[in-house]
Amino acid sequence: LLVSSAGPLLAIRWTDRPHISLDHLAGAVRVKNGSKDKIELTVIVVAVNEIGKAFALRYEHLALPKGAETPDLKFDSSLPLGQYTLHADAVGEVPAKNAIYRDRRQLERLTVESQ
């Protein structure tokens, strides 16, 4: 049985494209619940440097009603020198249906050159 949907069940998008200013990595995301159910949403934004060290820039856990969108979830953190890959992950759970929805955005080659 295939379930038809007009759009994605869960979608994360940049509302302020990630950018670096000196040693700060800043930006914002929003998540839309495209499902017909209230979801328990977890959002995490992580910058991973070239040696694999991860820095959590934003963590959010909230209930998101059906069809709703989060406000801008902003992040702005100081990072050590290095080259980073940025991951923004959204995971939505519908416990009553034993369902989990996921979406991810990723940007590579973000470089912090000065502090």
How are the elements arranged and paired?
Elements: E1 10-21, E2 24-33, E3 39-49, E4 54-64, E5 73-78, E6 82-94, E7 99-112
Antiparallel strand pairs: 1-2, 2-5, 3-4, 3-6, 6-7
Structural summary, described in words:
- By secondary structure, the chain is mostly beta strands.
- The chain has one domain (10-112): Immunoglobulins (Immunoglobulin-like, Sandwich), CATH 2.60.40.10.
- The protein is 0% helix and 67% strand.
- The chain has no helices and 7 strands.
- The protein has strands at residues 10-21, 24-33, 39-49, 54-64, 73-78, 82-94, 99-112.
- The strands form 2 sheets. Strands 4-3-6-7 form a 4-stranded antiparallel sheet, with no helix packed on it.
- A hairpin with a 4-residue loop joins strand 6 and strand 7 (99-112).
- It is elongated and about 45 Å long.
- The mean pLDDT is 94.
